[in-house]
Write a structure and sequence with these properties.
The complex is a heterodimer.
Chain A: H1 19-27, H2 36-48, H3 54-67, H4 71-84, H5 90-97, H6 103-112, H7 116-125, H8 131-143, H9 150-153, H10 162-175, H11 178-185, H12 191-203, H13 206-216, H14 223-236, H15 238-248, H16 254-267, H17 269-275, H18 281-294, H19 299-306, H20 312-325, H21 331-340, H22 343-355, H23 360-368, H24 374-386, H25 393-400, H26 405-418, H27 424-432, H28 436-452, H29 459-467, H30 470-483, H31 489-496, H32 501-512, H33 520-529, H34 533-547, H35 555-568, H36 572-582, H37 588-597, H38 604-618
Helix pairs in contact in A: 1-2, 1-3, 2-4, 3-4, 4-6, 5-6, 5-7, 6-8, 7-8, 8-10, 10-11, 10-12, 12-13, 12-14, 13-14, 14-15, 14-16, 15-16, 16-17, 16-18, 18-20, 19-20, 20-22, 21-22, 21-24, 23-24, 24-26, 25-26, 26-28, 27-28, 28-30, 29-30, 30-32, 31-32, 32-34, 33-34, 34-35, 34-36, 35-36, 35-37, ...
Chain B: E1 21-26, H1 30-40, E2 45-51, H2 55-64, E3 69-71, H3 74-78, E4 85-88, H4 92-104, E5 108-111, H5 119-132, E6 136-138, H6 146-156, E7 163-170, H7 195-199, H8 225-242, E8 251-256, E9 270-276, E10 280-286, E11 294-299, E12 302-307, E13 310-314, H9 336-346, H10 354-373, E14 377-380, E15 385-386, H11 390-393
Parallel strand pairs in B: 1-2, 1-4, 2-3, 4-5, 5-6, 7-10
Antiparallel strand pairs in B: 7-11, 8-9, 8-14, 9-10, 11-12, 12-13, 14-15
Helix pairs in contact in B: 4-5, 5-10, 6-8, 8-10
Classes of the chains: A mainly alpha, B alpha/beta.
């Protein structure tokens, strides 16, 4: 096991105030842990770039190159010159460019130095270096868009060194002069040549772009290039692209088909819709999705027809499309489809019912509920709830009182999203006459309603508690816990001390399930002193849970709470929960908790795992 | 362009026999292995190829996906015509090269965040993805979790009023997951690791165990510290909640503490302040405890906070608020990975496309430049350029080591 290791940088005195001394230090650097001076000099380079001090530092770095005793040192100076170097650094770098051992570091430094001097050095070195270095120089000239190098680069397009040829094509594409373009247009086709021409086409006038597309549209080109040409042509000249896209609708490649479908949906939806029925299943599905996404005129008719397609995938795509393009008139169709199907098709129909933006859809749904029956009614109720239709509460309350249990449950759930504080008395009355899982549904609905209401008022609940039987009181404790209004805490505390053991248990659970850390001190007291051992365990678990809720505490403060918890724990089960929690609170205090528990054989493995995780997290945090 | 509110899995292979995707995995170490298993749980996906230059990672992954073919070089994997899409989980310094190559090869891409090692490479990815019509999903999977979506909808629909401040708390420190942080002496790489290729476009340095596998994140040659590791999560969410997916800050300041480690040179604690148009300030902080981990939007009428551990708000009644159909509704995606496959099949845009990932990462890149230069960086979010600071502008890109380039 590794202990906490803070690896300090073994260094001589940092000479931050004396750049000359820093340079001397770095000149003696070789790869290894003694990096202090290198880091300091690099920081100085970053800070000096673009400031009046830059020339002075540059001169020092150049001198450093001269006095370097290792390649590592030279590399360090080159990296710094890449940050701030200018013309003054070029002669020295030119020398290094022609030495195999230093060519690469010189090259990437020169690439970053703007201006004609550095460009000239790179160009001049091109015929004088090995192919590996040449490739790098070509890359650099391309990235610099060095027009003056085109003549020298052109012959390299035909190099037998594949990497060099590719780099040349890419460079000519970036440089993009008429001469560069001409060279690429007459070069042997390759992926890189095509890519370079596509890049040029994007920046060119329509005539030049057209010529390039013509060159690249042949069947011998890879599919990726043909697709790029097709979509680029569609952007530049939609009318000219349309016939090619229509032909591509029937390509053997599903990818080409799908791209053609989407592109046509955007630029010529009418053409796509007229071809729609002749497309393969997958292409029709893509078409439906695309037409709905782009909001093509006339798409609603197509979507409605597509909801009856033989292919489930197309039907689902159409239903999804109605989420964007549907109107209140589609509500009956969607509700009926949701009622009659399952799986993806049902989910899509339900999604569309929820998503139709037109506010008249709310009225259409509410208006249809009273006369609907069975599954259709349930789908409409569900939709009213999911849409959060505020005006639906009274209709839904009526449905919640119906004899059909499935309708009742759906209505209670819908009220969860739509009821307001005004409906709380009516909901309490209905909850009183319910039992079992129905009662639980009401608890959730009441809690959600009150949480949503301004101030989360609990006075109705407190009042109902006073007059309720034991069962109702237990339910109200659950609701008050879910609401989390601290005005209810005195009542819950007194319930925790009630003579009825079941009520006590529900009160402890109410505190343990509180949505904020507020009742943690109550739980700690119960964990230590509750007469019932089960309640002590529930309380401690609640305390542990609440300690992990989002809060503005620092990690150390949270660790202190977990330390209190582990001191109160009497069983390994709770200790393991705490050890799991401390791993997510990375601080020295958490590490101490884990370490202390490594001596308890019942939790040693968990403590060890927590210790290792925390050591790794904390190893290199700045002090 | 999404598959509709509450969309279930539309595209099942039993419904559409052609709804099958052949997936290649490039980078099968930590995240790569775990996420590969997630993709394998989708019945439409067959992992047919795995590439890793660490032969231990490769053999472990092949053991988990026995029908896949193994590759040492990603170029060979991308050349396979039967592969439809790739999952890319290589270190940050490789993202640009692999992603652009994959797009050119006609493969759709699920790419890990951050989008790229630096802004210029991220832009190159976006350009390639647009050029080739590539479906791209960034691994910013928090967008697919209900708490994050709901929090963003609350903010987008004005439940807290005009937002003046966003606090983004990110993990800090230099986590030493495998306890190799003390192994910093240069030495020969293990025979199981192709060190030259592992370095790829990053500057040459000698091998040391502390440099690779997970902790590459803590060196600027290969990663961007915990700031860049997490910017694609919580800053991404911050932007999503504010409707800033196609925008960015106008100025960024930053400070970071020096690292005590000889190889891990990213700051263990840092602060970045990004200012946006309309008097909005984002504080991205790691390690100081001044900001809760996660994202918190603070408005004139309250605040909303969200993290993987939950959602909180003031007033608390906001948590029971229902977003109506006629309000801003963000796409409901129940599985980030399944959505990628859905979009591969439909060519629809994903929940976290490359252009959005570029914007999410930009405050991190600019913050890093601000930290290192000690200057306020002014940014034009429309043209995506640093203003009036050519020296800082230089730092948006870096020269790749030969023979690598995008």
């Amino acid at each position: 096991m590794k202990g906490l290791v803070i690896l300090t940088v073994a260094c001589s005195v940092l000479l931050a105030a004396d750049p000359e001394a820093l340079v001397r230090q770095v000149a003696g650097y070789d790869f290894g842990p003694d990096v202090a001076a290198v880091r300091e000099l690099e920081a100085l380079a970053y800070h000096s770039a673009g400031t009046p001090d830059v020339s002075r530092i540059e001169r020092l770095l150049i001198a450093g190159l001269d006095s370097s005793r290792s390649l590592a040192a030279k590399d360090a100076f080159c990296r710094d010159l890449a940050i701030l170097g200018g013309d003054a650094a070029v002669p020295k770098l030119a020398e290094l460019l022609l030495e195999p051992a230093t060519a690469e570091m010189a090259r990437y430094t020169l690439e970053r130095i703007p201006g004609e001097r550095s460009a000239t050095v790179l160009r001049d070195a091109l015929p004088r270096t090995s192919s590996g270095v040449q490739t790098g120089i070509v890359v650099s000239l391309g990235r610099r868009r060095d027009a003056a190098s085109v003549t020298a680069l052109k012959p390299l397009l035909a190099s037998k060194d594949a990497r060099l040829a590719e780099a040349t094509a890419a460079a000519l594409g970036s440089i993009d002069t008429p001469e560069a373009r001409g060279a690429l247009m007459s070069a042997t086709p390759s992926t890189t040549v095509s890519s370079a021409l596509l890049e040029i086409a994007e920046k060119s006038d329509p005539v030049t772009a057209s010529q390039i597309f013509q060159r690249l549209a042949g069947a011998e080109q890879p599919e990726a290039v043909r697709i790029a040409v097709l979509t680029a042509l569609a952007r530049v000249d939609a009318r000219r692209a349309a016939p090619f896209l229509r032909a591509a609708l029937h390509s053997e490649s599903p990818r080409v088909q799908a791209i053609a479908v989407r592109t046509l949906a955007q630029i010529d939806a009418t053409a796509l819709m007229s071809d729609f029925l002749r497309l393969a299943d997958r292409a029709r599905m893509v078409g439906v999705e695309a037409l709905a996404s782009f909001g093509a005129p006339g798409v609603l008719r197509l979507l409605l027809d597509a909801t009856r397609d033989a292919s489930e995938a197309v039907r689902v795509a159409a239903l999804n499309g109605l989420a964007k393009a549907g109107t209140p008139a589609e509500i009956p169709l969607l509700a009926a489809r949701a009622a009659a199907t399952s799986g993806d098709e049902q989910a899509a129909a339900r999604g569309a019912l929820i998503a139709i933006r037109d506010s008249a859809a709310d009225a259409a749904i509410l208006g249809a509920i009273p006369s609907a029956a069975g599954k259709m009614k349930m789908e409409l109720i569900r939709a009213a709830g999911q849409r959060g239709t505020a005006s639906s509460a009274d209709v839904l309350l009526g449905c919640a009182a119906e004899n059909d249990r499935a309708v009742q449950i759906e209505s209670i759930r819908a009220l969860r999203e739509t009821a307001t504080a005004a409906q709380v008395p009516a909901m309490l009355a209905l909850m009183k006459s319910s039992a079992g899982s129905d009662r639980t549904e009401w608890e959730r609905t009441l809690a959600a309603t009150i949480r949503r209401s301004p101030g989360a008022p609990v006075n109705e609940l407190v009042s109902a508690y006073g007059s309720g039987d034991a069962g109702m009181r237990g339910s109200l404790l659950s609701v008050l816990s879910a609401v989390g209004n601290s005005a209810a805490l005195p009542l819950i505390r007194s319930a925790a001390a009630d003579g009825d053991p079941e009520l006590q248990r529900r009160a402890v659970n109410a505190l343990a399930g509180w949505p904020t850390p507020e009742p943690m001190s109550d739980l700690l007291v119960l964990a230590r002193t509750a007469p019932n051992p089960t309640h002590r365990i529930l309380a401690l678990r609640g305390y542990i849970q609440l300690a992990q809720l989002p809060s503005s505490r620092t990690p150390s403060e949270t660790a202190a709470l977990l330390k209190t918890a582990i001191e109160a724990a009497t069983r390994p089960e709770e200790k393991k929960l705490i050890l799991s929690a401390v791993q997510r609170v990375a601080c020295p205090e958490s590490l101490e908790i884990a370490r202390q528990e490594t001596g308890d054989p019942q939790v040693a493995a968990e403590a060890k795992a927590a210790e290792t995780t925390l050591e790794h997290e904390l190893a290199y945090v700045a002090k | 362009m999404f598959l509709g509110a509450g969309t279930a899995a539309v595209l099942r292979a039993d419904v559409l026999p052609s709804a099958r995707v052949s997936l290649g995995v490039i980078g099968a170490g930590w995240m790569g292995f775990d996420t590969m298993k997630i993709f394998m749980g989708d019945s439409r996906v067959q992992v047919t190829a795995i590439c890793d230059i660490d032969s231990v990672h490769l053999s472990n992954a092949l053991a988990a996906a026995p029908s896949a073919r193994g590759f040492h070089e990603f170029e060979e994997l991308l050349a396979r015509p039967e592969i439809d899409a790739v999952y890319m989980a290589v270190p940050d310094h490789w993202h640009g090269i692999v992603a652009v190559a994959a797009a050119r090869a006609g493969k759709d891409i699920y790419g890990e965040k951050p989008l790229a090692h630096n802004w210029a490479e991220g832009k190159a990815i976006c350009d390639a993805v647009a050029r080739y019509g590539t479906v791209w999903q960034t691994g910013s999977w928090q967008r697919s979790l209900p708490d994050f979506r709901f929090a963003c909808e609350l903010v987008r629909n004005g439940r807290v009023g005009k937002v003046s401040k966003v606090e983004v708390g990110l993990p800090a420190g230099l986590t030493d997951w495998d306890g190799l942080g003390h192994q910093v002496e240069p030495g020969p790489p293990p025979k199981t690791l192709d060190w030259q290729r592992w370095l790829g476009p990053a500057p040459w340095v000698p091998y040391a165990p502390a440099r690779v596998h997970k902790t590459w994140r803590w060196n600027y040659d290969t990663g961007g510290g915990s700031l860049m590791d997490w910017v694609g999560h919580h800053v991404d969410i911050a932007h999503w909640g504010l409707g800033l997916d196609d925008s960015g800050p106008v100025s960024v300041q930053g400070s970071g503490e020096p690292s005590p480690h000889p190889i891990w040179n990213t700051p263990p604690r840092w602060r970045v302040t990004a200012r946006y148009a309309g008097d909005l300030t984002m504080l991205i902080s790691g390690g100081y405890g001044e900001v809760r981990p996660g994202t918190r939007w603070i408005g004139e009428h309250g605040w909303v906070w969200v993290d993987r551990s939950g959602i909180d708000a003031s007033p608390r009644s906001l948590l029971s608020s229902r977003i109506r159909p006629d309000e801003v509704r963000l796409p409901v995606v129940t599985s980030h990975h399944r959505q990628f496959i859905d979009c591969v099949l439909t060519r629809a845009e994903t929940l976290a496309p490359a252009r959005v990932a570029l914007r999410s990462a930009t405050p991190g890149w600019l913050g890093t430049i601000a930290m290192r230069t000690g200057r306020t960086i002014r940014w034009d979010p429309v043209r995506q350029k640093i203003l009036d600071d050519s020296a800082a502008e230089r730092l948006l890109a870096r020269a790749p080591r030969s023979p690598w380039s995008i």
